[in-house]
Structures are given as structure tokens and as C-alpha cells.
């Protein structure tokens, strides 16, 4: 429901309280806090190191000398109990087609220099951001930019202890395709495959090494843990003999993508010692699993340099963990059986896609990643100018958080400070919050002045002007805010809204907070449905101005808001409206029409159950109202 998004997650609080990060830190404590404490876990690695390989070698030799390796060996030897596939498969799952179909781009659109990409993009090297994807021409919304199958894929296996037959669907462990009929590995009976071909390839290339561990949930499949995906990258590299050479100038190779994975960004040198300890621990754990539970090292047993091989593999595991942490795509597989399919997941996973990994983050991006069957498609969600960078919003970042909270995530998890247009807009709203009297979209800030006169300056048109008239509204707003804190009155909120409209621009986040409070007040009273509708639309207009109508959390919230409105008995019982109320209702109709176009960007028309219901109800509402 709409108010849930803004009550729990939205940006600034109306009373100018300091931002609190407690909940955010609790959410990311596994990542931000490093290795979680376990019984007997006392060792902390503090040595200096040059790179991933040097760090692993020193860590491994130290834990061998101090005996700490026996604790890790014990953990490897004493895994959880055997676990097998659950048996209750929904009949709906069997009977419905579960995968979105998408027509790949044609041969003449293919990019000669970037595998899986169209000729709409090119690679550009930036000193600060590294590799970037840049538009080679002006692009309209809904333009396909990349169509890539994951080189390495993580799909959480479904079993009796973690499976949920209501929302989870069987997905192929090798390619990610949803399975109406599937095959299981005879040994583990946990991993499902869409075909015998996928089963054969998986068993030959990597599953033989992971099978025992997956039976016992040796690896966490949590979104914030990269132990398993780094293990899978290593096994992929082993099938290519760890060949990191490429002889052509194009980016990507169908036969061997390992060089491009090996070359992905890694911020190991920037990580805190706590995080480094966590990664080294994970790498040793994976190394001991390979050594003690599989025959991975059998070809090297007779060679005199087997210890060097152990150190090399351990260093690779560290390197791939760090690369996966900032380059993997968190997948939320859509479940088209339940609701609209937008915000209902049939499980999660991770993917390593070297081409998509070239795309940088923006909180308000111009492209998005969509899961189509067993491959990922990057499509534009806005018009993109020639020379503009292609950006997506990383799954780890929630654009409904404040700019400070979002930067906490990007800096702590992804090792960069986001300075996208939306972040700069929020910064500007804080530093220069006032309405400029000269330009329509300008933001003004107060200037220090020694002669006690209040002056303002617009950051857009750079004009200065007296703030005397504005200061009167600011003082009046402070009085109403104080009164609201005491009375919690809706009438006082409306007066505060009138003051804020004189002080701040119409797209201001301060106005957003006022609209949210008024919306929640009316929602609680349930006395004026048109007012609920009016303020709900105002909230979405401000958010869509900063973000995009196709940002999935925003689009999902809009669907639920409209669904709740037309399902509200008081709303549907309205028969007579004023001209102002009729105008709000007309605006609502316009938003409903726009909603279908946005939903069709992600979903086939036959899956728009919510929209069909909303459209029918809105038509019925207009048939039943009269306006003087």
C-alpha cells in the first residue's frame, strides 16, 4: 500500500529530525560487520599485504601455524544434514508458461566490439568511474541495449527447508529458466534442471564439485554473501584452464568469457580489515571444501608445487569474491502466476554478466535490467541523448531512502559515492531549498549578509533577491509546525501546506513530506476519498519527477495505490462531485491510462490482472458521478 512505502522508507521527516541509520545498519549487518561471531572465532588477520594472492598466502600460512585452520576444517567436515527436494509442486506451476518471451535483436543491430550489445552503445574509459557504456545516438524509451545470458549464474535450490510452494518456482540450476517439467541431479536431489542437456553440461563442468556441499547448504545463498558465486566463477575459470588472454579487440567471447570476468573491477585494496578477514575466511573455507570433499586437485597431486596451486586457487577465490561483490547482478525472478508479477518474486539469485557489468549505477537511471527466460535484457526507460552514459539502479540501492542512506550503501558495499542527478537534486534541495521568484524550476539559498538583510540567490539563474517576503512565510510555517506537534490537527497541516507552497518549489521534497502526512491523515479518517486520491497523485508526481515512472518499486506502489482506491467503498459510492473534485477524478483517469503503458514495458498484456480490474472500476465510477 502507498502509505507503507512513505511511512517506513521515505526520505526526510517533517520535523527536521536527524537521519537515523539504525535500521539500515541492522539490515546490512552481515556485510558491514564483517565475519559474524561464531563459537571459538577469535583470530583476526592484521598483516600487511600487496594483493589478493599475497593476503591469502599470508593468511593461510598464519592459520596453519596457529592452529586456527583446524576450526575451519572442522566446519567443512561437519556440515549440516542431508537435505532433499520438496515434493509438493503446485499444479499451477506445472500448467502455466512461466517465462516471458522476448525477441532478441537482429544481426544488423549487433555491436562488433561488445558481445551481447547492440550498436547503440560503445565503451568509454573514465578516470574516476572506470569503464562506461555511452549512447552512440539519440535513443527513445524502450530501446534494447544489451541481451546477455549470464556467464555464471547462482540460483538458490529449492528444498524441504527453504522451499515455498506458494511463491517459489523451480528454476534451472544451469540456465535459470523456469521449469514446468524438470530433471534433478541423482546425487543431491536438490538442484533442478530444465533439460537433460543442462544437467549434463552442469555435471561435467561444475556440479560434480558443488553437489556434496549443496546437499547440506554449505554456502549461504543470501543476497549479501558472495561465497558461492565466487566458487562458481572459479569453477568456470577451471573449465577454461584459467586462461586470461584474449586475442581480439571485442569485449566478450562466447567460448571463453573468463578473461573479461578476471578483468572486472575489484576494490580489495579499499576494504576494511574486518571485511578482508571475512573474505579470507570464506576463501579458505571454499579451498578446504575443494581439497577435502572433491577431486578438484587430483590432477595436481603428483606435482611438487601443489602448495603453490593451493595458494593460487585461494587467491583467485578472494579476487572473485571481491569482483562478485561489486559486479554481480542481484536477480529477483518474477512470478507471473501471483498478482501482477512486478513485486512478487519466485526466488532470487545472482548473475555474472561481463557486458552488463560495464554499466554504472544511478539512483534515477535511464535503463533497467529485465529477466526474460534464461537471459537478461537491458532496455532504456527514458530518452537518452547521444553521448550520455547508460545507467541502471543497482538492486542493493533503494531510491526511496535518503541520499545519505543511499550513499551509506554505495560507499560501504560498492565502494563509490553516488553523485547521480537524483542525489544532486536532493543535495540541492537541502542546501538551496527555497523557491526562486525569477525562474520556474530554480532553487534558492540564503546568503550571509552583515547588514542583517535577508538575501537569497538562485543556483540556476544566479540572480539575487530579498528574502523578506519569504521569511514571513517561514516564520508562519514554524508556528504551524509547532502547533501541529501539539494538536496533530489536519487543519493545521493544511495551513502548513499553504505556507510551504509559498516557500518551496512544487517538486520540493519538503512538500512531499507534507503531502505524505496529509494523505496518511485522510487515509486514517477514511472520510474524504477524493482528498486521499488528490494527495496520492501529488506524491507520485514529485517522486516521478525525481525518479522515473518505470522504477519498479515506484510502479508497484502506484498499482497498489490505484487498486486500493477503486476498492474503497466510500470512493465507489460517490455520486455528486464539485468541479474541483471532478478535475481530480479526471487526472486519476489520465494516470490509469498511463499506468497501462508502463506495465506493458515489463509484462505481457494477459498478465495485467490488476490493471484490468482498476480500469473496469474507474469506468464504472465515471458512469455514476455527476458534476454541476
From TrEMBL:
Protein's name in the database: SET domain-containing protein
Membrane spanning residue stretches: none
Keyword line: Metal-binding, Methyltransferase, S-adenosyl-L-methionine, Transferase, Zinc, Zinc-finger
Provenance organism: Psylliodes chrysocephalus
Keyword Ribosomal protein among record annotations: no
GO cellular component, one term: nucleus
GO MF entry, a single one: zinc ion binding
Pfam family, one: SET
Amino acid at each position: 500500500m502507498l502509505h507503507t512505502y512513505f511511512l517506513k522508507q521515505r526520505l526526510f521527516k517533517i520535523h527536521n529530525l536527524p537521519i537515523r541509520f539504525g535500521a539500515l545498519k541492522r539490515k546490512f549487518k552481515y556485510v558491514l560487520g564483517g565475519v559474524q561471531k561464531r563459537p571459538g572465532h577469535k583470530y583476526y588477520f592484521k598483516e600487511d599485504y600487496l594483493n589478493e594472492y599475497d593476503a591469502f598466502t599470508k593468511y593461510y600460512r598464519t592459520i596453519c601455524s596457529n592452529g586456527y585452520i583446524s576450526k575451519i576444517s572442522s566446519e567443512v567436515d561437519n556440515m549440516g544434514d542431508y537435505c532433499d527436494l520438496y515434493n509438493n509442486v503446485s499444479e499451477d506451476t506445472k500448467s502455466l508458461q512461466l517465462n516471458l518471451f522476448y525477441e532478441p535483436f537482429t544481426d544488423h543491430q549487433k555491436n562488433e566490439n561488445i558481445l551481447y550489445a547492440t550498436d547503440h552503445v560503445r565503451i568509454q574509459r573514465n578516470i574516476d568511474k572506470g569503464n562506461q557504456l555511452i549512447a552512440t545516438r539519440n535513443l527513445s524509451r524502450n530501446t534494447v541495449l544489451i541481451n546477455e545470458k549470464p556467464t555464471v549464474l547462482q540460483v538458490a535450490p529449492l528444498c524441504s527447508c527453504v522451499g515455498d510452494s506458494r511463491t517459489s518456482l523451480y528454476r534451472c540450476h544451469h540456465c535459470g529458466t523456469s521449469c514446468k517439467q524438470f530433471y534433478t541431479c541423482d546425487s543431491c536431489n536438490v538442484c533442478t534442471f530444465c533439460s537433460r542437456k543442462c544437467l549434463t553440461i552442469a555435471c561435467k563442468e561444475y556440479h560434480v564439485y558443488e553437489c556434496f556441499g549443496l546437499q547440506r547448504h554449505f554456502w549461504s545463498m543470501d543476497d549479501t554473501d558472495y561465497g558461492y558465486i565466487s566458487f562458481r566463477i572459479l569453477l568456470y575459470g577451471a573449465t577454461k584452464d584459467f586462461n586470461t588472454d584474449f586475442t581480439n579487440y571485442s569485449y566478450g567471447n562466447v567460448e571463453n568469457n573468463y578473461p573479461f570476468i578476471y578483468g572486472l573491477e575489484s576494490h580489495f585494496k579499499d576494504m576494511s580489515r574486518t571485511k578482508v578477514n571475512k573474505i579470507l575466511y570464506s576463501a579458505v573455507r571454499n579451498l578446504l571444501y575443494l581439497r577435502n570433499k572433491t577431486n578438484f586437485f587430483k590432477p595436481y597431486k603428483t606435482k611438487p608445487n601443489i602448495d603453490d596451486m593451493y595458494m593460487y586457487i585461494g587467491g583467485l577465490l578472494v579476487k572473485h569474491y571481491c569482483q562478485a561483490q561489486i559486479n554481480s547482478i542481484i536477480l529477483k525472478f518474477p512470478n507471473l502466476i501471483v498478482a501482477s508479477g512486478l513485486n512478487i518474486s519466485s526466488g532470487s539469485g545472482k548473475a555474472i554478466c561481463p557486458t552488463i557489468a560495464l554499466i554504472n549505477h544511478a539512483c534515477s537511471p535511464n535503463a533497467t535490467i529485465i529477466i526474460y527466460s534464461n537471459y537478461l535484457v537491458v532496455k532504456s526507460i527514458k530518452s537518452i541523448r547521444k553521448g550520455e552514459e547508460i545507467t541502471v539502479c543497482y538492486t542493493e540501492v533503494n531510491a526511496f531512502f535518503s541520499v545519505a542512506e543511499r550513499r551509506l550503501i554505495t560507499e560501504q558495499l560498492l565502494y563509490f559515492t553516488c553523485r547521480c542527478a537524483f542525489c544532486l537534486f536532493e543535495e540541492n534541495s537541502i542546501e538551496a531549498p527555497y523557491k526562486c521568484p525569477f525562474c520556474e524550476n530554480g532553487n534558492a539559498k540564503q546568503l550571509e549578509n552583515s547588514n542583517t538583510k535577508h538575501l537569497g540567490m538562485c543556483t540556476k539563474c544566479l540572480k539575487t533577491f530579498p528574502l523578506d517576503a519569504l521569511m514571513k512565510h517561514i516564520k508562519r510555517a514554524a508556528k504551524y509546525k509547532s502547533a501541529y506537534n501539539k494538536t496533530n490537527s489536519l487543519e493545521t497541516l493544511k495551513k502548513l501546506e499553504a505556507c510551504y507552497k509559498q516557500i518551496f518549489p512544487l517538486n520540493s521534497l519538503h512538500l512531499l513530506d507534507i503531502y505524505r502526512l496529509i494523505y496518511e491523515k485522510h487515509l486514517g479518517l477514511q472520510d474524504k476519498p477524493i482528498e486521499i486520491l488528490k494527495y496520492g497523485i501529488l506524491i507520485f508526481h514529485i517522486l516521478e519527477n525525481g525518479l522515473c515512472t518505470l522504477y519498479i518499486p515506484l510502479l508497484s506502489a502506484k498499482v497498489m495505490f490505484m487498486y486500493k482506491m477503486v476498492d474503497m467503498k466510500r470512493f465507489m459510492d460517490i455520486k455528486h462531485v464539485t468541479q474541483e473534485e471532478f478535475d481530480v477524478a479526471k487526472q486519476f483517469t489520465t494516470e490509469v491510462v498511463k499506468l497501462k503503458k508502463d506495465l506493458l514495458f515489463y509484462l505481457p498484456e494477459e498478465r495485467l490482472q490488476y490493471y484490468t480490474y482498476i480500469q473496469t472500476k474507474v469506468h464504472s465510477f465515471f458512469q455514476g458521478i455527476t458534476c454541476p
